[in-house]
Design brief:
This protein is mostly helical. The chain has a domain at 17-24 and 239-399: Chondroitin AC/alginate lyase (Glycosyltransferase), CATH 1.50.10.100. It is 53% helix and 3% strand. It contains 17 helices and four strands. The chain has helices at 9-13, 30-41, 48-61, 121-141, 144-159, 190-193, 196-202, 210-229, 231-237, 242-258, 261-279, 287-290, 295-314, 323-335, 358-368, 372-378, 383-397, and strands at residues 85-87, 91-92, 104-105, 171-174. The strands form two sheets. A two-stranded parallel sheet has the order 1-4. A two-stranded antiparallel sheet has the order 2-3. Helix 13 packs antiparallel against helix 14.
Length: 399
């Protein structure tokens, strides 16, 4: 079982419920976590399968890593291995050119070399998933070994001068023969933000000293400055597909974490026109995602980003769930019928999407909008297909 089977699912599952705000976490609800902890300690059998899976992920993280950007087999164009480096997922060697350069794009087809030892992309994912599992397990069990291991993962990635990542993404999603880094690489950093609520759960433990928590905030302050001013970041901010959505997710989350709530609110307010109305048509379709080769996959991926964005916006007093003529709900309503695998997706796609990704969206929306049919639609997927997802979600969606 993967703690976050798809990007954003854990964030959505743990997101604050409407009308509530956690004082230190932004995509996890403190009251819901406390209730979950109480029920686990009481031996609630309903939660046991998910709890068992969570602990298995945490136990695996006890021996995986620590991870660092300096261990990649290639060096970015800057010459500094402390700079993050990754490669465009859908770019391949050109078979008609010497040495395959420059690379050519095959949308929707992952080049396995882009996820190999030369790239920091798989490392950051394993680091953040490990921190999530360890921090949650520490919170729910009180076992300090989980907190200590999470602290080591964070210290190695962000703080240790010999292993730390520089707070930039200048060389993310490089394309051999074309670009040493590009705006699309900013989407990699949504994974970094998955560690932020884990940091909050570690407060009060011996995982990180107070000065180390302060150093973490300074790292993210520097990264926020880069997000605000770098030309690649500004270009990504102007993107009108899922990249733009997830750019707002990460910059708002980082701003909230470092205490810049006013800036986070400005992002949330701008998202009504810049994201909701620009990305989603009144009928709920997402034209930029329907232009891709994996149309349902990217429609769901962008929707996951929008759910995370709306959850973060709650902490700024902005209601994106209902803003912009309720475009977010329209987007969910458009894809909801396809929770039923027997209903064919009406747009071309090079392969079937994982429709279980609709489960957390529908279950969470049932709570946000007080709309039982969403829960019924989630139940339309065969039990054997949704079990893994429900194992992850039941801890946080039993309301």
């Amino acid at each position: 079982m993967r703690l976050a089977a798809q990007a954003g699912l854990l964030w959505i599952a743990l997101s604050s419920m409407v009308g509530q705000a956690a004082p230190t976490t932004f995509l996890m609800d403190g009251a819901q976590l406390a209730e979950t902890k109480r029920r686990i300690q009481a031996g609630d059998p309903v939660l046991q399968p998910a709890f068992t899976n969570l602990l298995a992920a945490a136990d695996a993280a006890m021996t995986n890593g620590p991870f660092t950007v300096v261990n990649k087999t290639l060096t970015p164009a800057s010459g500094d291995k402390h700079d993050y480096l990754s490669f465009g997922r859908y770019w391949w060697p050109d078979p008609d050119q010497p040495e395959g350069l420059p690379y050519i794009r095959r949308d929707g087809e992952t080049n396995p070399d882009s996820q190999g030892a030369a790239s920091d992309r798989p490392r950051v994912e394993r680091m953040t998933r490990g921190v999530e599992a360890l921090a949650l397990s520490y919170y729910l069990t009180g076992e300090t070994r989980y907190a200590e291991r999470a602290g080591r993962l964070l210290r190695t990635w962000f703080l240790d001068p010999t292993t730390r990542m520089n707070p930039n993404l200048n060389h993310a999603q490089a394309i051999p023969g074309r670009e040493s880094g590009r705006k699309s690489g900013l989407i990699d950093a949504r994974l970094l933000c998955q560690a932020l609520d884990g940091l909050a759960l570690l407060k009060g433990s011996a995982a990180l000293r107070d000065d180390e928590h302060a150093a973490m905030r300074e790292w993210f302050k520097a990264y926020l400055k880069w997000l605000k001013t770098n030309k690649l970041a500004r270009a990504e901010s102007d993107t009108t597909n899922n990249h733009g959505t997830f750019f707002d997710v990460q910059i708002m989350h980082v701003a909230l974490y470092v205490g810049d709530t006013a800036y986070a609110r400005s992002v949330a307010e701008a998202a009504i026109e810049k994201r909701l109305l620009a990305h989603i048509q009144s009928d709920g379709t997402q034209p930029e995602e329907l232009a891709r080769t994996r149309t349902l996959h990217y429609s769901l991926f962008n929707l996951e980003g929008f759910f995370a964005l709306a959850c973060l916006a709650e902490h700024t007093g902005v209601d994106l769930w209902r803003a912009g003529d309720s475009r977010l709900r329209a987007a969910l309503d458009y894809v909801a019928p396809y929770a039923d695998p027997a209903v064919p997706w009406p747009h071309p796609t090079i392969r079937e999407a994982d429709r279980t990704r609709l489960v957390p969206l529908l279950l969470y929306a049932a709570s946000v909008y007080d709309h039982a049919p969403y829960r019924e639609a989630a139940a339309g997927l065969p039990a054997e297909e949704t079990q893994a997802g429900l194992d992850q979600l039941v801890l946080w969606l039993m309301r």
